[in-house]
Amino acid sequence: MKISIKKIFSVMGIYVALIVLGMILSVLTPDFFTIYNLMNIARQSAINSLIAVGMLLAILTGGIDLSVGSVLALSTVLSAILIKNYSVNPLLGMLTCLLGGMFLGFLNGFMLTKLRLPHPFISTLGMMNIARGLALIVTRATPVSGFPYVVQFLGAESIGVVPVSFILVLIVYIIYHVFLTRTPTGRYIYAVGGNVEAARLSGINVDKTLIIVYTLSGLMSALAGLVLMGRVNAAYPLAGLGYELDAIAAVIIGGASFMGGIGNVWGTLGGAIIIATIRNGLNLLGVSAEWQTVIIGSVIIGAVYMDVLRRRIK
């Protein structure tokens, strides 16, 4: 019975916390619990949710990806330049964005595994600066705006009252749930995070697994960039600043461990929605952006401390 209760809590605890948070905010502000505002939260959470599922893969292996925001920026501005300046078919331009994100993620994994850098913090920190600098160079620090409807669809449209971007998130999370729980590579990711040496001795190709992880993280950053580009109808080189922090927070709040090997996609989705809910509620309450940053930072510290407590109890 203990095991089942613990399993239920690990899966549902984050959503119980989300419901409690929603109840508190609905009491504090009558504007919170409306269909319009709830769908606004879904829309606001979409970008971070997409980045966070890529971040989850990195954290599951005991690593981290600090380059997600910069990869988002570079992949989207390259796509925007192709569409606007070179009249490339919008769908081909969007595909280029995704391929660009995958390539940058692949480079992160390649540097980590083949150059034998000591920690993904180093490779992704370097990529964070390289990609951001290149995004500023190719655009001359100027936004690119005004895209056709097909580009705006993912970020700006809704089906009924539900944002297309959130529907995309649900589809992506179902795919990643299957990937992590039903495929050999998904099991290898958990194994590498649990004990990398044991994984290597059991015959798992650790380098290949890590390259796949960071390639997928880059892909998710680029996909999030397409949603952002569609939502604001612009691509700009400073897009994604600080997004890596929100993604890390979503993963840790969702129950993953910085030590690797622990975490799931549904907890991460709940973590991303909680962050969006907190920001939305603070906006409705008129809390300044400065204090919002303080509060989110406190939530991150609290989530990491909970992870420490969980490991002590075990």
Secondary structure: elements and pairs:
Elements: H1 2-28, H2 35-60, H3 68-85, H4 90-113, H5 120-139, E1 144-145, H6 149-156, E2 158-159, E3 162-163, H7 164-182, H8 184-194, H9 196-201, H10 206-232, E4 234-235, H11 243-253, H12 265-284, H13 289-313
Antiparallel strand pairs: 1-4, 2-3
Helix pairs in contact: 1-12, 2-7, 2-10, 2-11, 2-12, 3-4, 3-5, 3-10, 4-5, 4-10, 6-10, 7-8, 8-10, 11-12, 11-13
How would you portray this structure in words?
There is one protein chain. With 314 residues, this protein is an all-alpha fold. The protein has one domain: ABC transporter involved in vitamin B12 uptake, BtuC, CATH 1.10.3470. Helices cover 77% and strands 3% of the residues. The chain has 13 helices and four strands. It has a two-stranded antiparallel ribbon with strand order 1-4. A two-stranded antiparallel sheet has the order 2-3. Helix 4 runs antiparallel to helix 10 (206-232) and helix 11 (243-253) crosses helix 12. The longest helix is centred in the first third of the chain and has 27 residues, at 2-28. The protein is globular and about 55 Å long. It starts with a helix and ends with a helix. The model has no long low-confidence stretch (mean pLDDT 92).
Short description:
By secondary structure, the chain is mainly alpha-helical. The protein has helices at residues 2-28, 35-60, 68-85, 90-113, 120-139, 149-156, 164-182, 184-194, 196-201, 206-232, 243-253, 265-284, 289-313, and strands at residues 144-145, 158-159, 162-163, 234-235.
